[in-house]
Amino acid sequence: MLKKINTHIIYILLFSLFILFILPTSQGEDSFGESLYDNHCSDCHSLNLRGSAHGSSLLGKEFITKWEEHGLNKLFEYTKEKMPPGKIGSISDEDLLKIHNYILTSNEISDDDGFVSFRDPSTIDQPEDRVSNFKNKSLNNFKNINLQNINYPPDSDWLSWRRTTDGKGYSPLKIINTKNVKNIKLSWSLTMNKGSNQITPIVSQGIMFLTNPGNIIQALDAKNGELIWEYRYNFPKASKTLGGPTRNIAVYKDKIFLATYDAHLIALDIRTGKLVWKTKKARYEDGYTHTSGPIIANGIVISGINGCERYIKESCFITGHDPDTGKEIWRTSTIAQEEDKNGFTWGETPSVFRAGGDTWIPGSYDPKLNLFFIGTSQAKPWVAASRGMTPENSALYTNSTLALNPNNGEIKWFYQHIPGETIDMEVGFERVLIDHKSKKYLFTIGKDGILWKLNRENGDFVKLLETVDQNIYKNINYKTGKLSYRNDILNSKINEAFSVCPGIYGGHNWQAISYDEINRSLIIPLHQLCADMIGRKVERIEGSGGFGADSKSYALPSANGKIGKLISVDVDKMSINWTHEQEAMFLTSSLSTAGGLTFIGDLDRYFKAFNSKTGELLWETRLGSALHGFPITYAVGKKQYIAVTSGMGVFRALTATISPDIYQPENGNAIYVFELEK
Predict the structure, then answer these.
(1) Mean pLDDT for the stretch of residues 52-63
(2) More confident residue, 267 or 314
(3) Cα–Cα distances in Å, from 334 out to 340, 365, 480?
(4) Structure confidence at residue 300 (pLDDT)
(5) Which of 98, 371, 399, 549 pairs with 362 at a CA distance of 20 to 30 A?
(6) pLDDT at 354
(7) Largest Cα–Cα separation, the chain
(8) Top mean-pLDDT range of 49-58, 202-211, 661-670
(9) What is the mean pLDDT of residues 167-181?
(10) Is the pLDDT of residue 117 over 60?
């Protein structure tokens, strides 16, 4: 219960607003507090008010204490002056008051505290809740997808997150090439459900399987976008914690597999879209959710999980499931518990207070080695001091590449890129598997912009390359791969601010790299950003936890306003072939083809095609909203198509602050598909 601080001031403020705005409205209009919050605030602060990496928690003791000290009148003033990022002033005082009231009532602040309740709990029939009367059809002639198809897909298809299980994001199609790319045009488009649209379509046998924000899956005719069937997963509203990025689905045999917001794994009949089985992986009430989906490895459905910043007995993990029944076959923790042989790397921290190790991005699979590779995120809270540790505590198996036996989940080897990571420089992104003669390599890149080259048979370090300007490390050992933090970072204390380049959104993030097979080069999307960061005290109480830090991101000063960066790296020499810089951030992954092209989309609504060998811009078109997600290419008959999705969601709070001069539509979720003009 809040102390009665500034009660008189607060009451006058709220009563004045009540007289001015609330009294003339109807009871029906008063009930919009929650829906207004959902529309304007939930992308960053989550639908359950518990916060995310993009916004602080608005629920619980820490929130109450903070605004008890400042006075709740200041909360209203702060919201009016600062929120929402990039759209300040877009919410009326009336609506802000309703949002304000919804937050207070959610924290169980009563009239005894001196606050007037204006909330009407009655339900409103929202148009977005209505579904059309479309009748699903069946894909009667669709053939089952076997392991050979998944590991070595037909040229025409895109059967996994990055097309192939080796994570290359490369297509052998070359109908569209450097000579004719200027002649491509829009073939068809389809609007999509609202939310963070970071998705990857799957295409097989001329059918596109498209996941939408909101755990919606559609089967479409890939030639023209005609809807064949649609499935809508019914998830608890409070489980949608990050605005809805569901990055991928998996297909195998006669099923589609989706990792859901509420920490379940489900399988649908690929021909009808009907639910076949549903398996609970964890309690969403504990913060668990999914932003990435499964990968099929040796017939096992393998997926990680997110939402691992809370102090609970069950840590973050990776699971393997039976594709026919949904039965869990194995579970491997990404946190070394006290009883683990590497448990000592967390110091004296009890297991219940060991957090982090999320798997934000799907893994990769080598069928010849029968190894599944996946990256883990940093320990949490972000700053080592906030978790009662120092960077000397390496905190395994966070910030690592893990090589797992897909049959039983055993960790065959691991490589920790940044031991004891303390500034959110995670390396939990894509793993690209590339061979050279008899050597088998794994490439990955983290937020610090360092590109790693490892021997994927045993995890040995091979080489690294710095791809963006950084001031994080005072020393980099290029022979061993050992990184050493600056002294002020190494010794940072709670409530001590420091600046880092790159910042917490990274020199690289979830926008995956692609492999240009013709020129043996990686095409890497990068950001030239910095951040001011400060670690906060986090109580060691079971059920507490969180990210434990505040930050402010801004453009790298030496970049001269060119935040977006795209480079080509020779995988054998580990040297940069070419660089392209621009004002707008690249927000999609790159897609490379045998036609000598690399496709990528950006914040400024441009979808572009570059010459993969030279970096020359060959084609661009401007679409309805910022491009987001993972572009793909596929063929139906003799026609090649290029597909990309748009729509921002949760990242809009960042981009609106970083690039205020670039117009960003408030909506615009869609898929756009291109083909050559006849």
Answers:
(1) 72
(2) 267
(3) 11, 18, 24
(4) 98
(5) 549
(6) 93
(7) 77
(8) 202-211
(9) 98
(10) no
CA distance 474 to 559: 21
The owner of tokens 């939402």 is 307
> What would the pLDDT profile of 60-105 be if each residue is shown by its tens digit?
766 766 666 666 667 777 787 778 876 777 888 778 878 877 887 7
* Three-class SS state of 111: helix
Q: What is the pLDDT of residue 122?
A: 40
Per the CB < 8 A criterion, the answer to whether 352 and 542 are in contact is: yes
Q: Is 317 helix (H, G, I), strand (E, B) or coil?
A: strand
In the numeric block, the tokens 């981009």 are attached to 655
Structure tokens at 597: 């092209």
Scanning the structure block, which residue is given the tokens 């895109």? Answer: 158
Which helix (H) or strand (E) is 43 found in, with range? Answer: helix 42-45
Identify whether the C-beta of residue 288 lies closer than 8 Å to the C-beta of residue 263: yes
Overall average pLDDT of the 264-271 stretch: 98
**Measured distance CA(548)–CA(308) in Å, rounded:** 13
Other C-beta atoms lying within 10 Å of the C-beta of residue 357? 30
DSSP letter at 52 equals B
Report d(CA 166, CA 149) in Å as an integer.
Answer: 13
| Exposure b/e, 174-188, CB count within 10 A at least 16 = b | ebbbbeebeebeebb
CA distance to 187, 209, 419, 678, per residue, from 675 (Å):
6, 19, 46, 9
Relative to beta strand 473-476, strand 461-466 is unpaired
**176 close to 642: Cβ distance less than 8 angstroms:** yes
Describe the chain by its helix, strand, coil percentages, rounded to 5. Answer: 15, 30, 50
Return d(Cα 283, Cα 301) in angstroms, integer.
20
Is domain 7-124 given the CATH code 3.30.70.920 in the classification? no
pLDDT of 543 higher than 90: no
* Sheet of strand 549-555: strand arrangement: 497-500, 529-535, 549-555
Predicted TM-score of the model (pTM): 0.85
Q: Where are the beta strands (DSSP E) in 470-536?
A: 473-476, 483-485, 497-500, 514-516, 521-527, 529-535
pLDDT of res. 450: 98
Query: For all residues of the chain together, what is the average pLDDT?
Result: 87
Q: Residue 467: name the closest of 482, 452, 479 by CA.
A: 452
118 has a pLDDT exceeding 50: no
| Beta-carbon contacts of residue 127 (< 8 Å; ≥ 6 apart) | none
In the chain, DSSP finds a helix count (H) and a strand count (E) of: 10, 40
Whether the ω angle into residue 397 lies within 30 degrees of 0, i.e. cis, is: yes
Contact call for residues 655 and 626 (beta carbons, < 8 A): yes
